[in-house]
Amino acid sequence: MEKGSLLYEGKAKKLYKTNDSSVLWVEYKDEATAFNGEKKEKVSGKGSLTNIISSELFAYLRRQGVQSHFIEQVSPTEQLIKPLSMIPLEVVVRFVAAGSLSKRLGIPEGEIFPQPIIEFYYKNDELGDPLLTEDHLEYLELLSPKEYAKVKVEAIIIFKYLQKLCDQSGLQLIDGKLEFGRTEDGSIMLGDEISPDTCRFWRKGTKERLDKDVFRLGTGDMVSVYEEFYQTIKGVSAHV
Ligand SMILES: Nc1ncnc2c1ncn2[C@@H]1O[C@H](COP(=O)(O)OP(=O)(O)O)[C@@H](O)[C@H]1O
Ligand SMILES: [Mg+2]
């Protein structure tokens, strides 16, 4: 497999073509951003941690029967993925109140929801990623009602598996974001990344954060916290 020309550069990753049109080469960058790109820093070592963790979590999900774009990790900072036509949505599942939800609705951080809460945000930096209702999704032709139902079920299944892994690792999964895309035949598939950049993880029984909040809040070193997260789940994921 040969790495080809740069296709797209985002905030966290670069996508390259390969000599095989059914495979993309993705490189995770040493760059941290928060608050819609307002806070931005080069963080050496971050790209390899998010790549290794994302690869580990996609592989774990595959063992649980969850299909995704992930093919394989090919270097510390790189993985091969299947190309998807991405749906510009952030599908957020919340088990515990934190972040923007706590702020917006005045719910104290740490409050556990009886049922996971699912939210859809329009992935559009110019508009500030607004929250969408089911009607908006249909009007904007992002998801048909059938697809909406399917994505909701799929997102909950994925996070239940991640929750199980966290639980057995002594972590509490607080919330997380997924992105989906369409394959050539039009079916919807999980894409993008799953890591402490896209989910919140607390040490069980504490509010010790092992995720991007340490960067958002400026309370810790991202690389050592992501490394700690990786060390915590690494041995466990193979046995769950
Ligand atoms: N399998 C895939 N095929 C095509 N694009 C993808 C795939 N997985 C993720 N992407 C897209 O790659 C881009 C780069 O990722 P990232 O750097 O996280 O971007 P962003 O700054 O938009 O969040 C994003 O637009 C993301 O949706
Ligand atoms: Mg991204």
From TrEMBL:
User: Sorted alphabetically, which CDD domains does this protein's record hold?
Assistant: SAICAR_synt_PurC
Domain annotation SAICAR synthetase/ADE2 N-terminal: ranges: 6-231
What Gene3D superfamilies does the record point to? Answer: ATP-grasp fold, B domain, Phosphorylase Kinase, domain 1
Q: Which UniProt keywords apply?
A: ATP-binding, Ligase, Nucleotide-binding, Purine biosynthesis
- Pfam families xref list: SAICAR_synt
List the EC numbers from the record: 6.3.2.6
Matching entries from InterPro entries are given as:
SAICAR_synt/ADE2_N, SAICAR_synt_PurC, SAICAR_synth, SAICAR_synthetase, SAICAR_synthetase_CS
Catalyses: 5-amino-1-(5-phospho-D-ribosyl)imidazole-4-carboxylate + L-aspartate + ATP = (2S)-2-[5-amino-1-(5-phospho-beta-D-ribosyl)imidazole-4-carboxamido]succinate + ADP + phosphate + 2 H(+)
Gene Ontology process terms (BP):
'de novo' IMP biosynthetic process; cobalamin biosynthetic process
Known pathway: Purine metabolism; IMP biosynthesis via de novo pathway; 5-amino-1-(5-phospho-D-ribosyl)imidazole-4-carboxamide from 5-amino-1-(5-phospho-D-ribosyl)imidazole-4-carboxylate: step 1/2
Q: What class of enzyme is it?
A: ligase
Output the Gene Ontology terms for molecular function.
ATP binding; phosphoribosylaminoimidazolesuccinocarboxamide synthase activity
Q: What family is it from?
A: Belongs to the SAICAR synthetase family.
Name under which the protein is recorded:
Phosphoribosylaminoimidazole-succinocarboxamide synthase
Species this protein is from: Mangrovibacillus cuniculi
